[in-house]
């Protein structure tokens, strides 16, 4: 289970894209792929594919799992402002490390986040921010408990927990069932994980599975409750036939 004493032990790590992330001693893992880079990874694996698929939507509700350093949330705001999009966005983000969120006002973020510093400060102080275009709320506590209580219907999920090996409870088929239950009928999910077990857990909960490729980046996964065009589709029935050993992760095994 989670170790409270280790939670505060983190070290700053410089990623190859020049942005800073942290290394968590609690989970024995960095918060981002240091090779892909914190900001680059957020933009290329989560924000850009999501906003390309959902480009027609005037309003979007995003479930950002989990908040961590907030790169995915802040990169979303940065991207919308940079592209001059008028999309109204509500971001809901579970996180159980309150001390981390409270420390973010002084974290050394990339220059791209300079103009959204007031938003970062508000989140760090109040765990909440709202203006005419953006509403951002942190759900403090265990994501397994807070996700089933969400009342809003979600358009986009950024599935960005620590790895399945280090944080398995945020990757099981039961967990994805809870995520699915708060989704709109055409919701999409983005994740860095390309593991067969994770894709199976999503598939068992009604998601079609796709490969997302971006420049200077390892490929990642997009899952969607609707069939998508112009994204590389993976036939999971065929995958199951070819790899009969592959199984989704289960709560009871964690
Ligand atoms: C890989 S980091 C997320 C990185 C983040 N998306 C970002 O862009 O900076 C994973 C985060 O999940 C949080 N976490 C792990 N298990 C959790 C749980 N059960 N409930 C809530 N937060 C959790 C950790 O505290 C950590 O901040």
Briefly summarize what is shown.
The chain has helices spanning 4-7, 38-53, 71-82, 98-103, 117-126, 143-146, 173-181, 196-203, 236-242, and strands at 10-14, 20-24, 29-30, 59-65, 88-95, 128-130, 134-140, 154-159, 183-191, 208-212, 220-224, 232-234. With 254 residues, the chain is α/β, with parallel strands linked by helices.
What does this structure look like?
- The chain has 254 residues and is α/β, with parallel strands linked by helices.
- Helices cover 30% and strands 26% of the residues.
- It is built from 9 helices and 12 strands.
- The protein has helices spanning 4-7, 38-53, 71-82, 98-103, 117-126, 143-146, 173-181, 196-203, 236-242; strands at residues 10-14, 20-24, 29-30, 59-65, 88-95, 128-130, 134-140, 154-159, 183-191, 208-212, 220-224, 232-234.
- The strands form 2 sheets. It has a 9-stranded mixed sheet, with helices on both faces. It has a 3-stranded antiparallel sheet with strand order 1-2-3, with no helix packed on it.
- It starts with a helix and ends in a 12-residue tail after the last helix.
- The structure holds S-adenosylmethionine.
- S-adenosylmethionine (SAM) binds next to helix 3, strand 5 and helix 6.
- Residues 31, 42, 66, 68-72, 94-97, 100, 142-144, 160-162, 167, 170 line the site of S-adenosylmethionine.
Fraction in helix = 25-40%
Strand content: 25-35%
Q: What's the helix count?
A: 9
Physical arrangement of strands within the biggest beta sheet: 6-7-5-4-8-9-11-10-12
Could you say which overall geometry the principal axes of the C-alpha atoms support? globular
Radius of gyration over alpha carbons?
A: 17 Å
Q: Please describe the biggest sheet, giving its number of strands, its sense, and whether it closes into a barrel.
A: 9 strands, mixed
End-to-end separation in angstroms reads: 9 Å
- The assigned structural class equals alpha/beta
Q: Report the order of strands and helices.
A: HEEEHEHEHHEEHEHEHEEEH
Mean pLDDT: 95
